[in-house]
Amino acid sequence: MKASRLLPFFSRSTLTSLTICAALCFTGLYSFADTLTEGSVLIDYSLVSIGAGSTFNINSGPVVGLILIGNGTVATGSGNNQCSTPGTCNNTNGTPLIYNVSGAASGNQLTMGGSNNPRPTIVPVNPSLAVQAEADARALSTAAAALAPTQMFSNNIVGNGGINVINLTSFSSNSANSPRISGGPNDLFVFNISGNASFGNASIPTLVGVNPDQILWNLTASSGNCLSTSGGSAMQFGTFLAVNGCNFQFSNLGLTGQLINVGGNIQLVSGSSINAFAPFIGTPEIIPEPGSLALFGSGLFGIAAAMRRKFRRH
């Protein structure tokens, strides 16, 4: 029987009810859309410096995890402790820094080593990798910036059990006003900062029930130092992301997380390090919950039952 001849079997009210039921079913299935993700490339790297105009300078460490450079990066370095694992680091001890080079890159960091550090391990990878990484970084930044804020910034940030969004024009923290971020395993914290984020002397955020991979700092400035640390120990947590050409300037940074910069400068100097790699987990892939599947199934059952009754009558 043609589909067009099925319609007379249903009253207008029945069709309306079935349409609403179907809409509710699919809404339940797709209510948790995947809006925040690092994609397939960024998730593998603790430090990413890519894009035309990007530079990376290092004179300290360690940098735990892989480093991705390319599409125009100039990588330079000097100084000590440039290893990819904590501990003793010199030309005879320690694990070398590991660079994945995708596309054009230059600078003495690709060849240096010598008396102070083990020679870096350089691994050429497909030029498309940096292209994809840049596209994914821009997509993540755009998605984060588009989220509506859920709360104002304070020194005591409490999660709502989902995506927590805080928008700031600038941010300055020191030992006296370091934020406390508390929540649970389902919380994500997104800080959209349009100006400069500065972490001063002994600025150490307190995490309660929250891991560093649940925090994203989205820095959207297009020039200047959009992220800086200074003074004593500046332990920080989370993924710091910038895609518009601003700079990361560090002194005594001790990061558990990830650095991603497109088109700007990363200055990892003066005792700075990435002590542990913890990329932003983002929102999960769409996995329908049992309740959603039950709703979807009951909707299909209702449609089938209605069709069966109509066919019996006709």
Q: What does this 3D model show about the protein?
A:
By secondary structure, this protein is of the alpha/beta class. The chain has two domains: 3-33 and 286-313; 42-55 and 127-277, no CATH class. The chain has helices at 12-29, 128-145, 290-313, and strands spanning 45-50, 55-58, 66-70, 73-77, 98-102, 105-106, 121-125, 156-158, 163-168, 171-173, 180-182, 188-193, 197-199, 206-208, 215-219, 225-229, 234-242, 247-251, 253-262, 265-269, 273-277. The strands form three sheets. Strands 1, 3, 5, 7, 9, 12, 15, 17, 19 and 21 form a ten-stranded parallel β-sheet that branches. Strands 6-4-2-20-18-16-13-10 form an eight-stranded parallel β-sheet, with no helix packed on it. The protein has a three-stranded parallel β-sheet with strand order 8-11-14, with no helix packed on it. α1 runs antiparallel to α3 (290-313). The protein is globular and about 50 Å long.
